[in-house]
Structures are given as structure tokens and as C-alpha cells.
Design a protein that fits this description.
Blueprint: E1 11-15, E2 22-23, E3 26-28, E4 36-45, E5 48-52, H1 55-61, H2 66-77, E6 87-92, H3 125-133, E7 140-145, E8 153-154, E9 162-163, H4 167-186, E10 193-195, H5 213-231, E11 236-242, H6 247-255, H7 258-261, E12 264-270, H8 277-283, E13 288-293, H9 303-318, E14 321-328, E15 330-331, E16 347-350, E17 355-358, H10 360-369, E18 377-382, E19 389-393, E20 399-405, E21 411-416, E22 421-426, E23 430-436
Parallel strand pairs: 4-21, 5-14, 6-7, 7-10, 10-11, 11-12, 12-13, 13-14, 15-16
Antiparallel strand pairs: 1-2, 1-23, 3-22, 4-18, 8-9, 16-17, 18-19, 19-20, 20-23, 21-22
Helix pairs in contact: 4-5, 5-6, 9-10
Length: about 425
């Protein structure tokens, strides 16, 4: 017979269109009414939640007084009260949300990287990183380039093009990535992972570079992996960030090569990469998977897109991902990039009227990150609500279930595990977290 913990010991948090982060009420549930059960199945060990540090995010934050800016960073990173983000991304050189395009070495022919410099990053990225790390000093960081230095490419431009495929350029580019890791380390910022290329199949008008799976395999196997190994860098190499469902072209090609495989710690997926998450996890269970960039919307920050993002979170989590990374955490209204695309953000800062808006996707992310700890084990779920739910067991034994109700009517959720059964109400079109101590 199940024991029932006191309802006052259980935390139920609900967010609806009208009101975010409401305290819910639960009561003891009836076993015969269970519609969400935490099963005995145990899956991946969770590593973290986060977002990406981009220049336009810090530029937006910097329009606020320091106390209000710090309040936002507290809400994103504080390990007790905030979203508790601990697993974040930064660009190597300019991303599509940089204020201007740049790399860390634009000296043509500098194969030895004598002119390598992160001087530009002292303007925006490093202040952003250090302000966040003041709240979360144990932050894990991964980095990826959008474009190599222009003199390493054909055509010679930040946007479009490919890496020049000569031994001299390939050695120099491996050294470029080494210099990035080492220089940031001297700045007191440890980079835990390098993902080889942001969106390698995207030939974009913003900084980009096209790679094939064969090129990624050869560069990792013959240049980057040996260089990292030779120097003993405390930094992993990942096959990412893949924006394609071409499993055989990228994953099979690289991981089936034993020499390339031994240098690759995991696979980073974003956008269309979600289409192969299940297959990667099933075929290469020893390789960790992370979601590297939440799909970005159109700058309207609607409730409907937040519901879509919940589905993305559930998809990646149930298909073996060990971390989930949002894209731009903070932007100005409409989230317009310098090349004209409008994108969503968790927080909107309006410099004109000094207002701060926490958008629906902030609350969706918080529903997962606030109670699911690094080191948590994903538990299996069953029942008629399992299609809109995920569950974890934290290292301290507490359990967390995150449940969406996409319907425009109330529903009862009766949740049970091996020892207890409780009931609470899912409000119409809501996101819900139940924390069982």
C-alpha cells in the first residue's frame, strides 16, 4: 500500500497565459485514477540547462542600471532562486547576433596565430560571461565558430563559403581553436567543449561556413584531435552543432572512423538535427547528446511558440539529450539582429522606456530548470498524460515531473510513483511542475 506524503510538502507550480508561476494545491490521490505514473525505468543522467551569450544580449542588458541588470542575471543564473542555468554556449568570433562581424585573427597568412586576440570580446561577451558567472561560478561552457577567419575561406568573407582545404590552413585553424580555449582559460573562463561548426549545412548571409561530414571527420581525426591531445587541453571536441537530419552523412561518417571517434565526446544537435536525435542515441549510446540552440521564433514571443518550445524540450529529453540550451536569453523588443531577422528571447529589455518583460519561454525553461538538478536521472513515465510529460529523480531522491496541458479546459493529474500518489489540477493551456520531496 502506498504511503501519502503531506500535501504541504509538495510543490506544484503552474503557468498559464494569464499568470506565471502560480502555487498550486494538491491532495492525496486514488491509485485507480492514476494518469501519470513514474515507472522504474531509468535513462540518461542530466547535466544542465542554459542559453547562449551573444553581443546583442549584453548590449540590451547594458541599457539598464546595474541593479536591474543584475536582477535579470539573478533570475537566469542564481542556483537557488533563479532558472539556475549552468550549461551555456558562446560564439568563437561573430555569431549572427553579434553587433558586427569579426574573427579573432584577420591577419592574412598568420599560420602561427601570432596576432590571435580576443580583444573584441572584452566589449560585450566577457562582461556578460563574468556577470553571469558571479551568480553561477560553476558554469559549464561550450563554444562554436560561425565562421573561420576570412582569409582561411573561399570566398574570402564571413558569410557563405567553405574552409580552404590545404594542410597549412587546416593546421592553422586547429591552432586558432586551441588559442581560443587557452586564451579564455587565462581569462579565468574554462571552455569545456568545442563544437566544430555552427550549422555546417547552412550557407547563410550571416557568418557561416559549410562543411561535409567527411571534412569534419578528417579535420577532427588529423588536425584538431591530435592538437588537443598533444597539448593536453582540458576541453572536449564535439560533433556539432548539427542542423541536419542527415545521420549517415555526418554521424555515421565521423563516428564510424575509429581514429576520429576516439576524439569525439558527443553530438550537438539544433534545428533539423532534432530529426536524428533518437537514432544517434540508439546507435551510439556512449556518446552524449545535447540540444545546442533552441529554435528562435520570430520576435513575437507568443504563448503558442512557448507551447512549441515545450514540445522541443520533451523531444530532446525523451530522446537522450543530457543538456538543453536556449538561444538568445535577452534581447531588445522584436529581437532584431543586425542582418534583419527577428527572434524570440526569454527576457525583453526595452531601452526606450526601461521596461523588462519575462516572456513565456522564460517560464517554460524555468519549469524544467528550477527543480531538475545536474546529476538527476530521467525516469520513465506512463499513462494518458505521458505524451505531455517528463520526469526526473534528483541525486537527493526528490522527484520532479513537468507536465503540459495544451487543452483549453481543466484536467486532473493524478501522479504516482512506487511510494506515493497525489492529485492536482492542470489549468487550461498550462505548464506545470510538481516537486515530490
Amino acid at each position: 500500500m502506498k504511503t501519502h506524503i503531506l500535501p504541504t510538502q509538495i510543490k506544484v507550480i503552474t503557468t498559464t497565459r494569464e499568470q506565471a508561476w502560480q502555487q498550486g494545491i494538491c491532495t492525496p490521490g486514488m491509485e485507480e485514477s492514476v494518469n501519470l505514473r513514474l515507472t522504474g525505468e531509468c535513462h540518461q543522467i542530466w547535466e544542465g540547462w542554459g542559453g547562449c551569450f551573444n553581443e546583442l544580449g549584453w548590449i540590451a542588458l547594458a541599457t539598464l542600471p546595474s541593479d536591474r541588470r543584475d536582477a535579470i542575471l539573478h533570475d537566469l543564473f542564481d542556483p537557488v532562486e533563479g532558472c539556475r542555468f549552468n550549461y551555456c554556449r558562446l560564439p568563437i568570433g561573430a555569431s549572427d547576433y553579434a553587433a558586427e562581424w569579426y574573427s579573432h585573427n584577420e591577419t592574412p597568412g598568420d599560420l602561427e596565430m601570432k596576432d590571435f586576440s580576443i580583444h573584441r570580446d572584452y566589449q560585450h561577451l566577457i562582461p556578460y560571461l563574468k556577470a553571469a558567472m558571479a551568480h553561477r561560478p560553476d558554469m559549464k561552457l561550450f563554444a562554436s565558430p560561425w565562421s573561420p577567419p576570412t582569409w582561411m575561406k573561399h570566398p574570402r568573407a564571413y558569410n557563405y563559403g567553405t574552409l580552404l582545404w590545404t594542410p597549412e590552413i587546416l593546421r592553422a585553424y586547429a591552432l586558432y581553436l586551441v588559442e581560443f580555449v587557452q586564451t579564455y582559460c587565462r581569462e579565468g573562463i574554462q571552455i569545456q567543449q568545442i563544437h566544430l561548426q555552427n550549422e555546417p549545412v547552412a550557407d547563410q548571409k550571416f557568418p557561416s561556413c559549410v562543411w561535409t561530414g567527411e571534412q569534419m571527420r578528417d579535420f577532427i581525426r588529423d588536425y584538431l584531435g591530435p592538437k588537443f591531445s598533444q597539448l593536453g587541453l582540458n576541453c572536449e571536441i564535439w560533433l556539432g552543432t548539427l542542423n541536419t537530419a542527415d545521420y549517415d552523412g555526418f554521424v555515421t561518417t565521423t563516428l564510424s572512423d575509429p581514429e576520429a571517434n576516439r576524439f569525439i565526446a558527443g553530438v550537438g544537435l539544433q534545428w533539423d538535427g532534432k530529426g536524428m536525435a533518437q537514432r544517434v542515441h540508439a546507435s551510439w549510446p556512449e556518446k552524449r547528446i545535447i540540444q545546442t540552440e533552441n529554435e528562435c521564433g520570430n520576435g513575437q514571443n507568443t504563448w503558442e511558440y512557448a507551447q512549441y518550445v515545450f514540445g522541443l524540450l520533451q523531444h530532446y529529453i525523451t530522446n537522450g539529450a543530457v543538456a538543453y540550451t536556449y538561444w538568445n536569453m535577452v534581447l531588445e523588443p522584436e529581437g532584431r539582429s543586425t542582418w534583419g531577422w527577428k527572434q524570440n528571447a526569454m527576457v525583453t529589455v526595452d531601452a526606450g522606456n526601461q521596461s523588462v518583460t519575462y516572456n513565456p519561454e522564460f517560464h517554460v525553461m524555468k519549469h524544467f530548470s528550477r527543480f531538475i538538478d545536474p546529476g538527476a536521472v530521467r525516469r520513465g513515465v506512463s499513462g494518458c498524460l505521458s505524451g505531455n510529460a517528463v520526469a526526473f529523480e534528483n541525486p537527493d531522491g526528490s522527484r520532479v515531473a513537468v507536465v503540459a496541458n495544451p487543452l483549453k479546459m481543466k484536467r486532473s493529474c493524478v501522479i504516482a510513483d512506487e511510494t506515493q500518489c497525489v492529485e492536482f489540477t492542470l489549468l487550461p493551456e498550462s505548464f506545470n511542475t510538481v516537486f515530490l520531496p
